[in-house]
Design a protein that fits this description.
Structural class: alpha+beta
Number of helices: 9
Bound molecules: flavin mononucleotide
CATH topology of the largest domain: NADH Oxidase
Strand content: 15-25%
Order of helices and strands: HHEEEHEHEEHHEHHEEHEE
Length: 293
């Protein structure tokens, strides 16, 4: 379990780590991670969907089963990988993002580095290792290990520059009041200001930050939309990685609400809001419980 009081700090601290120390995980840390991956509640989405999470240890790029995993992009010295396994449906991708990010934050709290990988890995090697069922896919994996102190190695820096990792969108690019015509100020966001700030800090594929939010006029509902990046998801791709980004945002939003003792529920109940363009799609809403005003 992630500690309530530290979740904000954990979200603020998390960054994709691509350079790890060459030493392996301690037995104790490995055991804690395995325990986490086995708890059914940690594998459950916010709408009841389930995923499987499996840890695969690697030594010099080779798994215990002898499968060579190869090197992925800029990842250096991974000590293990956590592989996420999901059903293949549009909604399952959202739930996957939520569950996998919760795990990423748990690992961040343990000072273990992670980097979501959705594109740059050889799926077939991992799929051999885990015996995938016909209806299952591996949307993403993460390498894990202790972050190398000197993260700012040249290639790390270069990659962060290429994907504009440090460039998080501003409030006015993401959040709206009542309709997409009016920007939402932090003051007007009131109870949702911190949870929305935590959404801004979330990781997303190629740092596209596709989440958009419209707060209802009575301030009780927060409607989340996905602003698809045109041309980003390949036409023949079996799933949409930007739906995973939405689940990540829901995870940050919900955990930040919980930390502030704000209770609410997720609903799929599209409001009557004019959508700005054909790339923008409604996904889900958070509704604050009535007695909290
Ligand atoms: C669904 C998803 C897929 C990603 N896939 C990759 C990937 O294939 N390779 C990679 O180097 N980074 C990948 N990333 C990491 C993003 O580039 C990173 O989250 C973003 O640049 C923001 O940087 P930060 O995580 O340090 O805040 C992915 C992130 C997400 C959420």
């Amino acid at each position: 379990m992630i500690q309530k009081q530290t979740i904000i700090e954990t979200i603020q601290k998390r960054k994709s780590v691509r350079t790890f120390e060459p030493r392996g995980l301690t037995e104790q840390d490995f055991q804690r991670i395995e325990d986490y991956l086995q708890q059914p509640e940690n594998l459950l989405g916010f709408m009841g969907g389930e995923v499987k999470l499996q840890i695969i240890q690697v030594t010099a790029g080779v798994t215990n089963k002898g499968i060579k995993l190869g090197t992925y992009g800029f990842i250096k010295n991974p000590q293990a990988y956590i592989v996420g396994i999901s059903e293949n449906s549009p909604w399952a991708m959202v739930e996957f993002g939520y569950i996998f990010e919760k795990m990423v934050l748990f690992l961040t709290e343990m000072n273990i580095g992670t980097c979501w990988l959705g594109g740059t890995f050889t799926r077939t090697s991992f799929e051999q290792e885990i015996n995938l069922r016909g209806d299952e896919v591996v949307p993403c994996i993460t390498p894990i290990g202790y972050p190398r102190d000197k993260q700012r190695l040249l290639f790390d820096k270069t990659l962060r520059y290429v994907v504009k990792a440090d460039r998080k969108k501003e409030w006015e690019d993401l959040y709206y009041a009542d309709s997409f015509a009016t920007k939402l100020t932090k003051e007007a966001a009131d109870w949702a200001a911190t949870p929305l700030d935590m959404v801004r800090l979330a990781p997303s594929a190629s740092n596209k930050q596709p989440w958009r939010v419209v707060m209802s006029a009575d301030s009780k509902q927060v409607h989340f939309y996905l602003a698809h990046t045109p041309g980003y998801t390949k036409e023949n791709a079996s799933y949409d990685i930007q739906r995973v980004d939405m689940g990540i945002a829901f995870c940050h939003f919900e955990l930040a609400c919980k930390a502030a003792n704000l209770t609410g529920t997720w609903k799929i109940n599209a409001p009557i809001v004019a959508i700005p363009d054909t790339h923008t799609e409604y996904v889900a809403s958070w509704e604050l419980e009535d007695d909290q005003f």
